[in-house]
Amino acid sequence: MGYFSNIYYGIGTLLTGMRVTGKYFINARKGAITQQYPDNRDTLKMFERFRGEVVMPHDENNEHSCTGCQKCEIACPNGSIEIIWDRVIDPETGKKKKAIDQHIYHFGMCTQCGLCVDACPSDAIKWAQNFENSVYDRTQLTRILNKPGSKVRAGVEE
Amino acid sequence: MNSISHIIDWFINTEVLNMAMIALIYLTVFAVLGLFLVLLERKVAAWFQLRIGPNRVGYLGLFQTIADALKLVSKELTGTEKADKFLYNLAPYFVIVTSLMALAVFPFTKDLQAFDINIGIFFLIAISSIGVIGILLGGWSSNNKFALIGAMRSGVQTVSYELSVGLSLLTMVILTGSLQLSEIIEVQKGGWLIVQGHIPAIIAFMIYMISGTAETNRAPFDMVEAESELGAGYHTEYSGMKFAYFFLAEFINMFIIAAIATTVFFGGWLSPFGITESLPWMGLFWFLAKTFVLVFLMMWFRWTFPRLRIDQLLTLEWKYLLPINLVNLVLMAVIVWLNLTIQI
Amino acid sequence: METAIKEPTTSKSNFKSEEYFINMGPQHPATHGVLRLLLTIDGEIIKKVDPDLGYIHRSIEKMCEKNSYQQIVHLTDRLDYLSSHINNEAVCLCVENALELEVPERVKVIRTILGELTRIASHTLWWGVMGMDVGALTSYFYGFRDREMINDIFEETCGARLTMNYNIPGGLMQDIHPNFVKRVKEFIPHFRSKLPEYDRLLTGNIIFQKRTKGVGILTKEDAINFGASGPVARASGYSCDVRKHHPYSALDRVNFTEALDTTGDSFARYQVRIAEMWESLNIIEQLIDNIPEGDFKVATNAVIKLPKGDFYQKVETARGEFGVYIISTGTKNPYRVKFRSPGLSNLSLLNHITVGGKIGDLVATMATIDIVVPDIDR
């Protein structure tokens, strides 16, 4: 390329680039791609499958469906689930039955891989969409998922 | 006793107090202006980049940079242990003082000019070259290799691009026949110089904008800072207010480059077609409006173009800008000689 | 690093020039993470580049030996986090091959679509960062805008934006979200309209071309000798696309051309990646309309035990050939897992192709090699 055509071509490409950014500058009012967090907390909704933290849903009778089978504990790669269980006597049948005492979830160790929820045979644990997880003390990240006084829902078997 | 009264007389007669007052006002106004230029840069960048930009401090984020300045003032002044302390502390003042000094000569309106010397353009070119000493000192004395590379690049860059800035302004001086800024504007009452000088003036303007951007060490010529290469370049080791001086000086320099272009190419405070000739104070508006359009242009460059490499920077200057500039100078001389200028 | 400083070269002039040593990283804007480069420089000219690794070593290969085969998958998310889906796929394919497990067609197609989306997401991020490395800061946001759409697709279907862990040996963790097809179909025309903009902003720009053309030239022979793969090798004319030569999942039934260039400079690597984005769009377009019905996984034992032996599976991630090598002794844990990551072998040629260039060239070349440091360090 000749000397002058070089200059002409160079300036041309520079102006092309400036036209791209200029177009966005003029349309800047129409929408930024960034989000105004935390102002948009009310409208910010995560997708239903978003893996925020593991929770154990309880119904109105304070009953959950965790049988204490420990499949989630085995499935977890990081050891972030720890189940303390005991054998209790079922009042109806009189047989001894496995029941959880505490379903401990170490959120600080969790990598949100989803293997525990996938492994659960009775859908006792599921993902919550909460993502604001910062705490001042890491002991607060260790959570007991079953509520105090809760028991396993009747009919959920191991 | 006689000598003391003599000195007092001198003080009163030469209006040193007045000058000090004016200097103080200029200092305050332009420090604030510098801060708002930073804000403008951030807002403009945000709009180019599909963002919102500063919007938390004050209405629409207008006080963001003031908050930043307060933060910088309150920060600790750190430095490297083996830095050359004297030069290290001196460097930021070189940069900021020279850029503030340059502001003195601009005619914002017909009457609002602090310092009307008959070598205005020469003064501006001279002053703007001193600033680089501060950058060189800062990079050298902070005892950091990244800073040193940045400073050396700055030296190379400024030495080269000074030529282009000077020559492109000189091209216009042929047309005006004067170095005095107020007189340059008087000449433009018969049409802005970019119109009067047509083709060579437009070429000179383009060269001036390119080399002016390079003079201020802004992208695409920000080899001196080169964030992705050198971290922060010459001011890597500066913190707090000393860093703020470098930072502010960069933005005031940008204003100065745009203001020179306004004065020399776009008629300074003259309104287009003389529409507000009866209102002299409107000159300030026109001056600032033109300047900010050019400042915006420089921001537009910055947020669009990639950075040049140091050898390409020199190729651009020595192989393209300088020869074109020299030819342009002759062309302008011929045009003035043959009276081919456009007079409205 | 006393060894890096050489004796001052004595010349006839009065000025002595001396090479000096500079530490680029582990915290540096251009090293994309915690990579440390020990540079020996003569002024601006690079004499030697010595990458120093290990700042983000997490011994993932060793961790794999303790985990079951299902659990290994999520660790590979953390290697090359920009192609996490493809990494997952590699482990799953390896385990499935070892078990001689045939996954449903639906799984294969979905895996391929997600894999190509991952590639586009990775390349858009690379494009933005490439612009930033050469100094054009705006490209970063344009790249991220388009990547965000893909991330939303991932989040809706897989549950996470980056470390998706959507593959399991035997299929997928859950079926695709009902919105998946709609969203992907929205994305394709959007991205097709934005890709030419990438070219206008950066590719055509004279400064960008000057910065990248003729810089960091890698010959085909060297590409093969250094074990380069992915766009880095393809830009030198070395046809090495695993998708083409050893198709996996649903890649055997799609038509696409392997992006190749012969120049081998930084600009060629750039062009290859841009071309790959177009090709990935083509692949997605061919598959998205005919995702076969069926199960999203086949049942496997809760405890997967691979037969005794060693198994290897390679896939093409956004950076090149990613290989998973598993040695099994027949237990539920692998005896040894080795990941062949593209980043490490691509990084190894950095010294070879940047010596003699300027500092600016090093940054531009490193951007086109597109390293992800956790992929190198593992």
Apparent shape of chain A: elongated
Q: Helical element count of chain B?
A: 13
**Unreliable runs of chain B:** none
Helix content of chain B: 55-70%
Q: What structural class do you assign from the helix and strand content of chain B?
A: mainly alpha
User: DSSP strand (E) fraction of chain A?
Assistant: 15-25%
Multimeric state = heterotrimer
Here the CATH topology of the largest domain in chain A equals Alpha-Beta Plaits
Q: Strands of the biggest beta sheet of chain A: in what spatial order? A: 3-4-6
- Major β-sheet annotation of chain B: none
pLDDT averaged over residues of chain A: 83
Alpha-carbon distance between the two ends of chain B: 61 Å
Task: Describe the largest sheet of chain A.
Answer: 3 strands, antiparallel
Assess the beta-strand content of chain B as a share of residues: under 5%
- What overall form of chain B do the CA principal axes indicate? globular
Model regions low in confidence, pLDDT < 50 over at least 5 residues of chain A? none
Topology order of chain A in helix (H) and strand (E) letters: HEEHEEHEEE
Q: Biggest interface between protein chains, with counts per chain?
A: B-C, 30 and 32 residues
Tell me the domain tally of chain A.
2
Number of domains of chain B: 2
* Average of pLDDT of chain B: 83
Structure explained in plain terms:
The complex is a heterotrimer of chains A (158), B (344) and C (378). Chain A is built from three helices and seven strands, in the order αββαββαβββ. Chain A is α+β, with helices and mostly antiparallel strands. Chain A folds into two domains: 1-34; 53-152, Alpha-Beta Plaits, CATH 3.30.70. The model of chain A has no long low-confidence stretch (mean pLDDT 83). Helices cover 69% and strands 0% of the residues of chain B. Chain B contains 13 helices and no strands. Chain B has helices spanning 2-13, 16-48, 64-74, 85-102, 120-141, 145-176, 181-187, 193-196, 198-215, 227-230, 240-265, 282-302, 310-337. The N and C termini of chain B lie far apart (61 Å). Chain C has helices spanning 60-66, 69-76, 84-99, 105-133, 138-158, 180-203, 206-212, 220-225, 231-234, 242-245, 266-288, 342-348, 350-354, 359-369, 373-377, and strands at residues 20-24, 36-42, 45-52, 167-168, 171-172, 309-316, 321-328, 336-340. The mean pLDDT of chain C is 86. Chain C is 47% helix and 12% strand. Classes of the chains: A alpha+beta (158), B mainly alpha (344), C alpha+beta (378). Chain A binds chain B through residues 7, 14, 17-18, 20-22, 24-25, 28, 31-34, 36, and chain B through 44, 46-52, 300-301, 303-305, 320.
